[in-house]
Structure formats: C-alpha cells, structure tokens
Design a protein that fits this description.
223 residues, Rossmann fold, disordered N terminus, alpha/beta, two-stranded antiparallel sheet, globular, seven-stranded mixed beta sheet
Length: 223
C-alpha cells in the first residue's frame, strides 16, 4: 500500500485505525495490499508501541489519552472529534482496548469494525483462549465484525478457525489464532472498501459475490 500523500488516489476510501498496544494487527494491515488510504492511527495510550509502527510507515499518529478524562463519555467525545478531523469512511479497531459508549457507536453506525480472538458469538470479552481451553473446545478462532453497542456481538464479516491441539496452552493457541487474524482483517477491509459487503435488513453481513464452496473443518480428524 503506497502511503505517500502525493501518490494517494483521492477516490480511495480512507480509514482511521485505533490501537492501544503492540500494534501486531496494525502492522499486518499496513503491510497488506488494501485499496484504501490510512489517514491516521490514533491511540488511547501515549506509550503504545504501535504508534512507532505507524510512524515507520509514514502514517499520521494522534493520542487521545483515556486517563485524562473523568468518564467514558468525555473520552469518547474527544476521540470522535479527533477521528472526524480525517473524515474516514471506516474506523478500524485493531487492538483498541476500550469499551465504547452507545453514543459513540451510533455516531459511526456501520462504519466501525473490530477483530476479536474467538469464533463469536462464543467467548466474547477477555481471556478467550484460556476460556476455550478450559471448556475443551476442539475448534477456536477469530472474528471480524461490525461494532454495535452490544459488545462483541455485532454483525459478523469473516471468521477463521483453527484446531485446538491436545498440548495447547493459551500462549500457543493465541499465536495460531493471531496468524489468522493477520489474514482475515485485511480481507474484511478490502471487502468494505470495494463495496463487496452490505448489511441486510436483518442486520446480517451479505456478500455481493457468490460465496465459494468449501470443505468442513473437523477436529480432531475422523478415522
């Protein structure tokens, strides 16, 4: 993705990426071939390592520190003003560890997407890998979805599944899931920017192209 301002196609959709931490998914997005312009990367933490990744790619960075605000509403208000400076077509939550107020979500309805480390609607919230292992599930994964006021339960865009191995720990399982996150997150953004997806009247994500048939994932394999 060419990020030099003088070479940006102004007809491209623009996105703003929100981060809180290391920026693993941010890096994957910036290194992917996506048909969009990254207008800015915004963090709620001034020390987020992901900000340096954005700077290395020539992306404008901003910080809206959540601890400088007395409540979620005032933080979200300033964050929205910062986002609106860039007039993005899409706001991408790439490891943004803040629960957004219903007012903020409504302001950007159908323009907010998030990635979550589980096969939603299973295991919303935190500690997804440890919870999956504790329950003995055989298939785990990740989900990209539109954000709604019902946390981690918005319309699903794309999912990827991995088999859970007998000797898995939360760390090893998280690593395999993260690899899939890096694959499906850019794909979801490509679909959005190319107008390949839309929301039905029932609030489900539909594709404008026919889905390709695939095989079932069975884990463990049947003998």
């Amino acid at each position: 993705m060419n990020l030099k301002p003088e070479s940006v196609d102004i007809t491209m959709k623009s996105i703003v990426i929100l981060i809180s931490g290391l920026g693993s998914n941010l890096r994957a997005l910036l290194e992917a071939d996506m048909p969009c312009r990254v207008a800015a990367v915004i963090s709620n933490r001034v020390d987020a390592p992901g900000l340096e990744i954005a700077k290395q790619h020539g992306i404008t960075t901003r910080v809206v520190a959540h601890h400088s605000h007395p409540d979620r509403e005032s933080f979200d208000s300033e964050l929205a003003l910062c986002i609106d400076d860039y007039r993005p077509d899409l706001i991408v939550l790439a490891g943004f560890m803040r629960i957004l107020t219903p007012q903020f979500v409504a302001r950007y309805q159908n323009k907010l997407i998030n990635i979550h480390p589980s096969l939603l609607p299973a295991y919303s919230g935190l500690n997804t890998h440890a919870r999956a292992l504790r329950d003995g599930v055989k298939i785990h994964g990740c989900t990209v979805h539109f954000v709604t006021s019902d946390v981690d339960h918005g319309p699903i865009i794309i999912q990827a599944a991995v088999s859970v191995l007998m000797d898995d720990t939360p760390v090893t399982l998280a690593a395999r899931v993260l690899h899939q996150e890096h694959r499906i997150f850019p794909q979801a953004i490509r679909w959005f920017c190319n107008d390949d997806i839309y929301l039905s009247a029932e609030g489900k994500v539909l594709m404008k192209r026919l889905e390709q048939p695939g095989c079932a994932l069975v884990s463990p394999e049947m003998g």
